[in-house]
Design brief:
- The protein is an alpha/beta fold.
- It has two domains: 9-240, Phosphoenolpyruvate-binding domains (TIM Barrel), CATH 3.20.20; 273-304, no CATH class.
- It has helices spanning 9-20, 34-42, 52-58, 69-82, 98-110, 138-151, 165-169, 171-183, 197-206, 226-232, 242-260, 275-281, 284-294, 299-303; strands at residues 26-31, 48-50, 87-90, 115-119, 158-163, 188-191, 211-214, 234-239.
- Strands 1-2-3-4-5-6-7-8 form an eight-stranded parallel β-barrel, surrounded by nine helices.
- Strand 6 (188-191), helix 9 and strand 7 form a beta-alpha-beta unit.
- Helix 2 packs parallel to helix 4 (69-82).
- It is globular.
Length: 304
């Protein structure tokens, strides 16, 4: 059954783990702030993806490992505190070696993540669809996965191992790495940037574990219908950049209108939500109810 719980992070993690085991393909749109997360939940999605690249670009940086763990943690706390669906969180390389990763896992668990994914790039990392990536050894990544698994205090926190080896070492070597990561106990595999549907099928046939796939236009991976992804064997598909790229386009359009037209406020209901619709997304009415229950409002102000 779909996950829509107003419960603790532990409840969400247990429900999410069960849902993955049901064998359906879950869609996880990428978010980068609490507003985008609320939109994903209100649209009816069961899970969201906190994109490290999305957060980095929202801060004005490319996705090349410039954002710190502290900066990402603050976003994650705000996101998980504002929604009631599970969050898959991109923690890059764990922000350092295996010892750094121990603290990373515990901090993101405390911040409310339902799942985290850790990749086998060197630190600092790059976007999985950029060129010029470098990898740590399989042996080092295996130790990092062991450290992550032992560091979690909630056994239902899902640890996803991501490999970027396809672009660096080739398909066969990447599958070998994937086997090593699953054998050591990773809960799920994120095979980044397969270059054809045939490669996707090869990964699914070779790996006996739940699989996550990354889908977005303009990357190295071709777009594949969701029914095909499910039949191939993927259990989660993330769309890390859709919302951010759409919002950029909308803001560019709004700015062009402000420059071009002789308008008092520049409001265009075909282009943007209304003032009241925006407040509805952040539950202004709920906040007003709390004010009535707990705040003393002067009589004159109440009457006004």
């Amino acid at each position: 059954m779909p996950i829509h719980l107003k419960h603790s992070p532990g409840d969400l993690r247990r429900a999410f783990r069960r849902r993955i085991g049901e064998g359906v393909l879950l869609r996880a749109p990428g978010v980068f702030d609490p507003m985008s997360a609320k939109l994903v939940e209100s649209a009816g999605f069961e899970v969201l993806y906190v994109s490290g690249g999305g957060i980095s670009r929202s801060m004005g940086f490319p996705d090349v490992g410039l954002v710190t763990m502290t900066e990402v943690i603050e976003r994650v706390r705000l996101i998980t505190g504002g929604v009631s669906i599970p969050s898959i969180v991109d923690v890059d390389t764990g922000y350092g070696n295996a010892i750094n990763l121990i603290r990373t896992v515990q901090c993101f668990e405390d911040a409310g993540a339902s799942a985290i994914h850790i990749e086998d790039q060197v630190t600092p990392k790059k976007c999985g669809h950029y060129t010029g990536k470098s990898l740590i050894s399989t042996e080092e990544m295996v130790l990092k996965i062991k450290a992550a698994l032992n560091a979690r205090r909630d056994p239902n926190l899902i640890v996803i191992a991501r490999t970027d080896a396809r672009a660096v070492e080739g398909l066969d070597a990447a599958i070998e790495r994937a086997h090593a990561y699953i054998d050591v106990g990773a809960d799920m595999l994120f095979f980044e940037a397969p270059e054809s549907i045939e490669e996707m099928r090869a990964v699914s046939a070779a790996i006996d574990a739940p699989l996550l796939i990354n889908m977005f236009g303009g990357g190295k991976t071709p777009s594949v219908p969701l029914n095909d992804l499910e039949s191939i064997g993927f259990r989660i598909v993330i769309f890390p950049s859709h919302l951010q790229r759409a919002s950029i386009k909308a803001m560019q359009g709004a700015l062009e209108i402000l420059k071009r037209d002789d308008l008092a406020d520049g409001e265009d209901t075909q282009l943007m939500v209304t003032f009241n619709e925006r407040d509805a997304i952040v539950n202004l009415d709920g906040m007003k109810d709390l004010e009535k229950r707990y705040l003393h409002v002067p009589q004159a102000e109440e009457e006004a």
